[in-house]
Write a structure and sequence with these properties.
There is one protein chain. The protein is α/β, with parallel strands linked by helices. About 40% of the residues lie in helices and about 15% in strands. Strands 2-1-3-4-5-6 form a six-stranded parallel beta sheet, with helices on both faces. α3 links the parallel β3 and β4. α2 packs across α3. It is globular, with a radius of gyration of 17 Å.
């Protein structure tokens, strides 16, 4: 099994490197680097979630092992669209673990965070958490970080859900009890888009609850991946 991890806004593939050791023997951890950061620093940022998902799906479709997709916030939205793109190519994923994201067909009016000034963007990052105060206080670090955050916010803010066939795959949907952006009803609404066995869990914390409870998240992945592998083998 291959676990494909997709980052939240502004993050890079480096976020998931420690998982390779923790999940060794359970799954191969793959964290594709998105344009404009990490090893791809300096390349143009992606501008459209669906187009980026299609690009990732084209690469992942060539893998011969079953795929489980994980993503948080923007990464959850991207993982969902990658799974839909793969399905259009006749490639079904073995499962989805999506955290920190309301079901996208419930999205309200487009937001405009990408048009904020740098100071407003820093305040937004401080409000949602996930970025240390030390980083937010370092102008040199922010100068490198904010362009990726702004580009990713542009993709999320301008994303428009397009109806399509529901995904018949197992999934776990996670939300933070203190995350105002993902009240329980918006998490359960994923059942309208994913028809495989689907579990919804709320964990203590705000938007970045998974960062605070990474050990619990890894334990969940270590549990569901073998279960989904066994279920897939039983069908075959």
């Amino acid at each position: 099994m291959r676990l494909v991890c997709l980052p939240h806004a502004g993050a890079s593939a480096a976020l998931f490197r420690p998982w390779k050791v923790t999940l060794s023997g359970i799954a191969t951890v793959d964290s594709p680097e998105l344009p404009g950061r990490g090893a791809r620093y300096g390349t143009p940022f992606a501008t459209d979630i669906a187009a980026l998902a299609d690009d990732l799906a084209d690469t992942l479709a060539q893998r011969s092992v079953p795929l489980v997709l994980y993503g948080h916030s923007m990464g959850a939205l991207l993982a969902f669209e990658v799974a839909r793109s793969l399905a259009r190519q006749g490639v079904g994923v073995a499962g989805l673990v999506l955290s920190g994201r309301a079901a996208p067909h419930l999205d309200g009016p487009p937001r405009a965070r990408h048009t904020m000034t740098d100071a407003e963007l820093v305040a937004e990052l401080a409000a949602i958490g996930g970025t240390s105060k030390e980083v937010l206080a370092q102008p040199d670090v922010l100068a490198m970080t904010l362009p990726a955050v702004r580009a990713d916010f542009r993709m999320v803010d301008t994303y428009a859900f397009k109806p399509g066939p529901a995904l018949p795959v197992p999934a776990v949907i996670l939300g933070g009890t203190e995350d105002a952006a993902t009240p329980p009803e918006t998490l359960h609404a994923w059942t309208e888009l994913i028809t495989g066995p689907l579990a919804v869990e709320t964990w203590p914390g705000g938007h970045f609850f998974v960062r605070e409870q990474e050990a619990r998240l890894l334990a969940l992945l270590a549990k569901v991946i073998p279960a989904w592998r066994a279920a897939r083998a039983a069908v075959v």
